[in-house]
């Protein structure tokens, strides 16, 4: 009886590259195109309350694998972190501001906040000023760009609502 593992293994690196490309194309043809809000769970993270819609490591069944797309709910304020930028943030509801590299940027529903790509990254934190409840935004990260500029995420300050068994502030 033949071992199916040996059958699936490509004979060389060139064939492996072709197979990898076929897997990407197949995901594009058959992957999920519609992701409903209620299908994704909110998570309390060191950066705050986040719901991922596209995340290639967490949701490999979606048609697009080159994007990380998530919504964040800002109650009082987010955690503070630094990364290379290259993120577009669309404000879905509420109002508030972001401190990016020491500069305050006020925003409200319908605005687009863009964090530039820059050496050493952009340190930033988001604040809610909406008196009637949390603010919420959607972030879009194109992973080929993020990987090209050597994305490094460093958590500087943890969000106020986050509780962790480790309790530490680490990279990532």
Description:
With 172 residues, the chain is an alpha+beta fold. The protein has a single domain, classed as Sandwich (Jelly Rolls), CATH 2.60.120.10. Helices cover 17% and strands 39% of the residues. The strands form two sheets. The chain has a six-stranded antiparallel β-sheet with strand order 1-2-3-10-5-8. A five-stranded antiparallel β-sheet has the order 7-6-9-4-11, with no helix packed on it. The longest helix has 18 residues. The N and C termini lie far apart (46 Å). The relative contact order is 0.19.
Helical content, roughly?
A: 10-25%
Using the coordinates above, name the CATH class. Answer: Mainly Beta
Q: What fraction of residues sit in β-strands?
A: 35-45%
| Average predicted confidence as pLDDT | 87
Q: Distance between termini? A: 46 Å
What characterizes the major β-sheet? 6 strands, antiparallel
What is the correct CATH architecture?
Sandwich
How many domain regions? 1
What is the CATH third-level topology name?
Jelly Rolls
Tally of strands? 11
How many separate helices?
Answer: 3
Give the CATH H-level superfamily: Jelly Rolls
Strands of the widest sheet, in order across it, are 1-2-3-10-5-8
**Which stretches of 5+ consecutive residues score pLDDT under 50?**
1-6, 165-172
Order of helices and strands: HHEEEEEEEEEEHE
What is the CA-based Rg, rounded?
19 Å
């Amino acid at each position: 009886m033949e071992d199916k593992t040996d059958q699936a293994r490509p004979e060389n690196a060139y064939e492996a590259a072709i197979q990898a490309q076929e897997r990407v194309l197949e995901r594009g043809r058959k992957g999920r195109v519609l992701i409903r809000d209620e299908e994704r769970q909110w998570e309390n993270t060191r950066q705050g309350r986040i719901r991922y819609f596209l995340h290639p490591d967490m949701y490999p069944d979606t048609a697009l694998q080159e994007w990380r797309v998530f919504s964040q709910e800002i109650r009082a304020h987010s955690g503070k972190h630094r990364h290379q930028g290259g993120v577009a943030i669309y404000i879905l509801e509420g109002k508030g501001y972001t401190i990016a590299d020491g500069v305050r940027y006020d925003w409200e529903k319908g605005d687009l906040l863009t964090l530039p790509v820059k050496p050493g990254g952009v340190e930033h934190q988001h604040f809610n000023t909406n008196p009637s409840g949390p603010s919420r935004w959607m972030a879009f990260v194109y992973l080929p760009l993020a990987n090209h500029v050597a994305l490094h995420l460093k958590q500087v300050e943890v969000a106020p609502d986050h509780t962790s068994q480790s309790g530490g502030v680490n990279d990532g």
